[in-house]
Design brief:
The complex is a heterodimer of chains A (110) and B (268). Chain A is mostly helical and 110 residues long. In chain A, 72% of the residues lie in helices and 8% in strands. Classes of the chains: A mainly alpha (110), B mainly alpha (268). At the A-B interface, α1, α2, β2, α3 and α4 of A face α1, α2, α3, α4 and α5 of B.
Chain lengths: 110, 268
């Protein structure tokens, strides 16, 4: 069983822990410039949207070559997005996305 | 877990409410932990690796993002940079709690930090606000029973049960990861700037992926999107994003502000 990514988990913890711990353990160290705080707050939506879009739309066509490809997965993601935006409930959105993709494939689409 | 025999009726009542809130959060943590386990399995994680991410990293959205980075073939150094910036919002929660927890021993605060998540903070903030003071056992109830244990058990269940499904795509399960990423992004959009940052991140990510490959495209989208968002006028909205897991019993923005009004541990 592979354990290579355990080291990555440890390193991810090492870069996550200071944000959680430094103000608790060393009060005063949390004071970042306001523009840096604004930037950090915007990284979350930007990086998650970037991952979602790339994972949904970009496929390899050959070695070191990529293209945009739209299939039923994109439909599932859009359905999930719509449900989450409407109901603010990610679990419901995921269920809706999975069901629509499974149904389309069962119908021979995609 | 219940209040100690000598606890006041107010404390017992507050902890009963806390347990109810904790149960609600635990349901979500189980759902998302399971989805993370499935996504990690799809990306090639072994059960040990997936569990290590949840026990040691314990970083919600950043764990999901790491699945995307790993499957895109991103080198570890940019993964760590992105993990750091994605989790930097915890500074706000930690800084908000710090003045209230000065009376807790250093080791206790160090352990509290490891289990400090959006959900743990929200549960603690709500509980402290109801009680009008800090309650250390209440913090542990929310952080451990509400998030840490359910998240980790569900992660293991997801990665193990995912292996029993011969063709996940036949059931539409291959859409879980990108859909979860998109849905989590929506949960973090709390104003015009965040909306523009997310849209720009997606456009930059796809456009640059076609040129330099998905690994660097994802990084570029995550780092350039916020710059475009910052160029927009602030349209209001929350200062602190909502949780990366839906269903919190509290507005985190208000919780941070209310925490400032509470007395420190040991002063009452």
């Amino acid at each position: 069983m592979s354990t290579e990514l355990v080291l990555l988990a440890v390193l991810m913890a090492a870069v996550t822990y200071p944000s959680r711990a430094l103000p608790l353990l060393a009060p005063g160290i949390e004071r970042l410039p306001p523009r840096a705080l604004v930037y950090l707050r915007l990284v979350g939506p930007a990086v998650l949207a970037s991952i979602a879009a790339v994972q949904t739309l970009v496929v390899p066509t050959s070695q070191a070559s990529w293209a945009i490809h739209v299939d039923v997965t994109a439909v599932g993601v859009v359905v999930c997005l719509a449900v989450v935006a409407w109901r603010r409930n990610l679990l419901l959105g995921l269920v809706a996305g999975v069901v629509i993709v499974a149904a389309l494939r069962f119908a021979g689409i995609g | 877990m219940t209040a100690s025999p000598g606890a006041s009726p107010d404390l017992r009542a507050a902890r009963r409410r806390l347990l109810l809130d904790t149960a609600g959060i635990a349901v979500y943590a189980i759902g998302f932990g399971f989805v993370f386990g499935l996504a990690a399995r799809e990306a090639g994680y072994s059960p040990i690796e997936a569990s290590a991410m949840s026990v040691i990293g314990f970083a919600g959205a950043a764990q999901f993002a790491a699945v995307g980075y790993v499957s895109a073939g991103l080198p570890w150094a940019p993964i760590l940079v992105l993990t750091f910036v994605l989790n930097a919002r915890h500074l706000l929660y930690s800084a908000s709690l710090a003045p209230r927890l000065r009376g807790v021993p250093f080791l206790g605060r160090a352990l509290m930090a490891h289990v400090l998540t959006d959900e743990a903070f929200a549960l603690a903030a709500t509980h402290f606000h109801r009680l009008g003071r800090v309650d250390i056992p209440g913090y542990w109830i929310g952080a451990i029973l509400g998030v840490f244990i359910p998240w980790n058990v569900a992660t293991l269940a997801g990665v193990l049960l995912g292996g029993a499904i011969a063709d996940p795509s036949a059931f539409g399960l291959d859409v879980v990861f990108p859909a979860a990423m998109a849905g989590l992004a929506v949960g973090l959009i709390t104003g015009r700037r965040a909306l523009v940052a997310a849209g720009s991140g997606a456009v930059f990510g796809v456009a640059l992926s076609l040129i330099v490959g998905p690994a660097m495209g994802i990084v570029a989208g995550g780092l350039l999107g916020p710059l475009v968002g910052m160029a927009m006028p602030d349209g209001g909205g929350h200062v602190v994003p909502e949780s990366d897991v839906s269903g919190l019993p509290v507005d985190l923005d208000e919780a941070v502000a209310e925490m400032d009004e509470l007395p420190a541990e040991g002063t009452r």
